[in-house]
Design a protein that fits this description.
- By secondary structure, this protein is α+β, with helices and mostly antiparallel strands.
- The protein has 2 domains: about 160 residues, no CATH class; about 55 residues, no CATH class.
- The chain has 6 helices and 7 strands, in the order βαβαβββββαααα.
- Strands 1, 2, 3, 4, 5, 6 and 7 form a 7-stranded mixed β-sheet that branches.
Length: about 230
């Protein structure tokens, strides 16, 4: 892991995970959302205040980058602000985030056909304050995540799930990914993952075929295929 750069969605934004990554001499970019309400609220409020002032506060050190991507009738404008953690007031349990150097705000404005939306996202990172570099890292992460989430939604209707409390959302997310890996490994039935999932639900023999493919891959490699 040494020398690697790890990006993780909010589900994995935990102090223990950040410590493990940093102590292994790697860097992290972790999505910050409402599962850390106090920390998230402090970062969000600070950025909103600075955003309203166009980041012209006295002594505010930050890095900024802007880019526009076009393709397939879609245009997306992105603005990235990166600020050293030292520029903010002491945040909730800040010292528990080992290696934390910067907080990042990304504003995305995608336009597809006649629909325009606006998304604001925040990140914690152990990388240096370089908005251009961080923008590239986060863009690559989105590409992977969007592809995965689209597949999970098509196969398991993930977006329609209304489970929100306790550990259930995280547990279900893990089970969906295990199931998706298993379906990808089963190649005897040349159908979509959604069709294979329906077949496994109705046919116990085929369900065993899917599980066997997953377990066989697990036995043949040093890295678990279904995890």
């Amino acid at each position: 892991m040494a020398g690697c750069m790890i990006t993780i969605d909010a589900m994995g934004t935990q102090t223990a995970i950040a410590s493990q990554i940093f102590n292994a001499k790697a860097d992290y970019v972790l999505a910050l959302k409402g599962n850390h309400p106090t920390f998230y609220g402090q970062v969000k409020n600070w950025f909103e205040q600075q955003f309203s002032q166009a980041f012209k506060g006295i002594g505010i050190i930050h890095s900024y980058d802007k880019r526009v991507e076009k393709g397939h009738h879609r245009t997306e404008k992105r603005q990235i602000w990166c600020v050293p953690i030292s520029q903010l007031q002491t945040l909730h349990n800040q010292d528990n985030w080992v290696g934390l150097k910067c907080v990042v705000m990304v504003v995305r404005v995608p336009h597809l056909w006649n629909k325009t939306t606006r998304e604001v996202q925040f990140y914690l990172t152990s990388l240096n304050c370089d908005a251009r570099n961080l923008g590239q890292v986060i863009s690559l992460y989105w590409g992977v995540e969007n592809g995965l989430h689209w597949t999970l939604d098509v196969t398991f209707s993930e977006n329609a799930c209304r489970v929100r409390t306790g550990d259930a959302p995280q547990n279900l997310a893990i089970l969906r990914r295990i199931s998706l890996n298993a379906l990808n490994l089963e190649q005897s039935l040349k159908r979509s993952n959604s069709q294979k999932s329906n077949r496994a639900a109705m046919d116990n023999n085929y369900m065993l075929t899917v599980l066997t493919a997953c377990l066989s891959q697990h036995d043949d490699t040093s890295q678990p295929a279904c995890q």
